Amino acid sequence: MKTAKKAGLVALGALLAGTTVPATPAGAASMIQRTSICHSGDFSGRFTLQYEAVGFDYRITGGYTVSGPYIGDVAGTVSLRISYRSGSTTHTVYSQTSATTGHTTFTVPTTTTVPATSTGTAAATFDNGSASCTATVPIS
Questions:
Q1: Distance (Å, rounded) from C-alpha 106 to C-alpha 112?
Q2: Cα radius of gyration rounded to whole Å, the chain
Q3: N or C: which terminus of the chain has fewer CB atoms within 10 Å of its end residue's CB?
Q4: Quick one: which of 65, 58, 30, 43 has its CA closest to 127?
């Protein structure tokens, strides 16, 4: 029991530090979560991407963002772009722009993958109308 508690605390500490937290139950895909934060003056955004290692690919399972401040009834936007490089070519496998007032959850098609042999990134660009910033996480 003490070992399970310690493993849980280590995973929680890693999440709070914005690092990768792989979890691999027997026979299951390796789940990975990455977080990045950006700032522009008082405005900030936090982007978390969730994906799993499946065979020779990373399958994107979703993500969420928190950003602000948004003043009054003004909504901002958050744009997500998931891509990878193969040689000198950049391939975008998913992109979406949504209105936000602070919290956004992304659901992507189950076919959204990045080859494990390529350099992948996911970037969330936040804009409140007067400030913007981009939070980027590696997919590896």
A1: 12
A2: 16
A3: N
A4: 43
H or E stretch covering 3: helix 2-16
CA angle 125, 89, 21 (to 5 degrees): 50
- Residue with the bigger pLDDT between 137 and 28: it is 137
Spatial distance between the Cα atoms of 98 and 50, rounded to a whole number of angstroms: 18
Closest alpha carbon to 69 in 139, 133, 14: 133
